[in-house]
Design brief:
Layout: H1 2-5, H2 7-16, H3 49-65, E1 70-72, E2 82-85, E3 96-106, E4 110-115, E5 125-130, E6 132-138, E7 144-150, H4 151-164, H5 175-192
Antiparallel strand pairs: 1-2, 2-3, 3-6, 4-5, 6-7
The chain binds nickel (II) ion.
């Protein structure tokens, strides 16, 4: 997409001139079924610093535009273990960057919540997952962090982490319901064109 890349030098020039930087150009979000949404993502390394520094603002821009509360790098075509999340508590931005997440512990208690996904626009289903998780990850500065998450945050992190394994939320439901959703999505996508 050469058209999008041309905006990046502009943004840098604006920032250097002391003006407000231009907002990041949102990356297009892949829609299921797509082979990259079924692929496993690789860990982020030191060598990826520049790549992810450019990727993160464009992932947030795509997520806020959708709008959504979470997005994983494979959804924008990058097979890296990188997530962005913002639950917008009290309608205020609270962006979280999660790199190379690992679930250290998950509760045996489960919770069921309705999930949707920016890669399956307009589709929703009830999904059962552990109610609480303990998570280790690197933040956007590669600093190591550990948190416990439950409720919407816990669900959101687990949903986004699934994308790193090539799993989407409909993989957690019955094949009957999954096939219904995938057919409905395909039909709606055809009508949009
Ligand atoms: Ni998703």
């Amino acid at each position: 997409m050469p058209d999008m890349d041309t905006h990046i030098p502009d943004a840098a020039t604006e920032a250097d001139a002391g003006a407000e930087p231009l907002p990041a150009e949102p990356l297009p979000i892949l829609v299921a079924p797509h082979p990259l949404l079924k692929s496993r993502a690789r860990p982020v390394t030191e060598a990826d610093r520049a790549t992810i520094a450019a990727l993160i603002p464009r992932m947030f821009a795509a997520m806020y535009r959708a709008p959504g509360i979470g997005l994983a790098a494979p959804q924008v075509g990058h097979l890296l273990r990188l997530l962005v999340i913002d639950l917008m508590p009290d309608d205020k931005p609270a962006p979280m960057v999660i790199i190379n997440p690992e679930i250290l512990a998950a509760s045996s208690e489960l919770c069921e919540r309705e999930e949707g996904c920016l890669s399956l626009p307009g589709q929703y289903a009830q999904v059962v997952r552990p109610a609480r998780i303990k998570l280790r990850y690197l933040d956007r500065d590669y600093a190591r962090r550990e948190i416990e998450a439950e409720g919407l945050l816990g669900t959101c992190i687990q949903h986004e982490m699934d994308h790193l394994e090539g799993t989407i939320f409909v993989d957690h439901i019955s094949s009957l319901k999954r096939n219904m959703i995938m057919r409905k999505l395909a039909k709606e996508q055809r009508l949009k064109k």
